[in-house]
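Deliverable D2.4 — example input (structure tokens):
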């Protein structure tokens, strides 16, 4: 009987202790969904680095890209941007393939809260460079969209600036004028809901460098970037992607 009383006593103590522990145990911290983007910076990366095939992106040592970004690709591929905390951030873009000849690109960039940026990588895999551009987004109040032009053509020597003409607008005047290598224009209003073709000329000439660069149907009120890249003496291309 004495043993039975002791067992009942111990069970009771254990139950009370368990109840006390469950009541006093601290609730785990759970990350809340990100809904307010005014306190973070928005970033996208376009790969204009000639012959780059297997690039991954890291911010402050942490990987942020789940898939490799090759030449002509944009990250993120299924969204307008990814978010980073404001302040001085260290970016690393590198090819993780064993035996790669691509030189890792490391740079520090200050990011402001509530701002949007596009990072363009360019040049060659043995001399990879970057240009970080602030996206001055303007949302049209009509049925147009916004378009800008970026010139990241590669050549080992200096090349002429370029003029860009639109098939839809005709040849009376370029839609983008005298854009230097590594230059990125401001956004301009552009017709949405139709396809178009861009022609790239050396500034002041009449022979196009790039013929029939198709611009896909663009959505009204959105903002887009068309990037001229490739080799000046070889294959050239224009890639158009959504910036906002």
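Example output (designed residues):
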């Amino acid at each position: 009987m004495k043993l039975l009383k002791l067992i009942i006593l111990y069970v009771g103590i254990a139950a009370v202790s368990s109840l006390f522990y469950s009541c006093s145990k601290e609730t785990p911290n759970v990350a809340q969904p990100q809904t307010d983007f005014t306190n973070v910076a928005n970033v996208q990366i376009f790969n204009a680095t000639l012959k780059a095939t297997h690039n991954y992106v890291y911010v402050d040592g942490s990987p942020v890209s789940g898939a490799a970004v090759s030449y002509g690709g944009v990250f993120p591929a299924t969204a307008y941007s990814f978010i980073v905390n404001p302040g001085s951030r260290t970016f690393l873009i590198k090819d993780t393939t064993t035996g790669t000849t691509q030189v890792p690109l490391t740079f520090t960039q200050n990011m402001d809260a509530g701002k949007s940026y596009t990072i363009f990588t360019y040049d060659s895999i043995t001399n990879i460079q970057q240009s970080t551009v602030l996206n001055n987004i303007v949302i049209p109040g009509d049925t147009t969209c916004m378009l800008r032009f970026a010139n990241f053509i590669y050549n080992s020597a200096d090349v002429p600036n370029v003029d860009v003409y639109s098939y839809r607008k005709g040849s009376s005047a370029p839609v983008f004028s005298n854009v230097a290598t590594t230059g990125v224009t401001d956004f301009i209003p552009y017709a949405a809901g139709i396809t178009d073709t861009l022609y790239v000329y050396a500034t002041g000439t009449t022979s196009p460098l790039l013929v029939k660069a198709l611009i896909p149907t663009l959505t009204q009120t959105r903002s887009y970037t068309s990037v001229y890249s490739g080799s000046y003496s070889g294959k050239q291309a224009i890639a158009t992607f959504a910036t906002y």
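Residues 1-35 have pLDDT under 50 and may be disordered.
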